[in-house]
Amino acid sequence: MILGHGIDLQEISAIKKAYEKHQEFAKRVLTEKELAVFNGYSGKRQMEYLAGRWAGKEAFSKAMGTGIGKLGFQDIEILNDQKGRPYVARSPFLGNCLISISHSGNLVQASVILEDEKGKGDHL
């Protein structure tokens, strides 16, 4: 059963501007493991990655119904599997979490679906 769905659309240039203004920006948004991946990239790909994680975490918080504030960026960790697919590696949600992140031009979009496949009830 689907318990929540969140979508976020973000301009990559806005994330780049925030990062250039505050070098600690990436450390606020990314977990330690995400930051290690981020530091392995450079230029455009680095900003796409940061914007994608931002959008993914915003979409997750919307699916939870809280928004960022009650949930922090460090509460959610988004990694990639061996095929490059993103997955939520850590979060306060106990059920199944599906995530998709897509980049096009100056935009990144993320969608998160929270579901409870086992019928244990509402985990939100």
From TrEMBL:
<dbReference type="InterPro" id="IPR002582">
    <property type="entry name" value="ACPS"/>
</dbReference>
<dbReference type="InterPro" id="IPR004568">
    <property type="entry name" value="Ppantetheine-prot_Trfase_dom"/>
</dbReference>
<keyword id="KW-0808">Transferase</keyword>
<keyword id="KW-0479">Metal-binding</keyword>
<feature type="binding site">
    <location>
        <position position="8"/>
    </location>
    <ligand>
        <name>Mg(2+)</name>
    </ligand>
</feature>
<keyword id="KW-0276">Fatty acid metabolism</keyword>
<feature type="binding site">
    <location>
        <position position="58"/>
    </location>
    <ligand>
        <name>Mg(2+)</name>
    </ligand>
</feature>
<keyword id="KW-0275">Fatty acid biosynthesis</keyword>
<dbReference type="GO" id="GO:0008897">
    <property type="term" value="F:holo-[acyl-carrier-protein] synthase activity"/>
</dbReference>
<keyword id="KW-0444">Lipid biosynthesis</keyword>
<keyword id="KW-0460">Magnesium</keyword>
<keyword id="KW-0963">Cytoplasm</keyword>
<dbReference type="Pfam" id="PF01648">
    <property type="entry name" value="ACPS"/>
</dbReference>
<comment type="function">
    <text>Transfers the 4'-phosphopantetheine moiety from coenzyme A to a Ser of acyl-carrier-protein.</text>
</comment>
<dbReference type="InterPro" id="IPR037143">
    <property type="entry name" value="4-PPantetheinyl_Trfase_dom_sf"/>
</dbReference>
<comment type="similarity">
    <text>Belongs to the P-Pant transferase superfamily. AcpS family.</text>
</comment>
<dbReference type="InterPro" id="IPR008278">
    <property type="entry name" value="4-PPantetheinyl_Trfase_dom"/>
</dbReference>
<keyword id="KW-0443">Lipid metabolism</keyword>
<feature type="domain" description="4'-phosphopantetheinyl transferase">
    <location>
        <begin position="6"/>
        <end position="90"/>
    </location>
</feature>
<protein>
    <recommendedName>
        <fullName>Holo-[acyl-carrier-protein] synthase</fullName>
        <ecNumber>2.7.8.7</ecNumber>
    </recommendedName>
</protein>
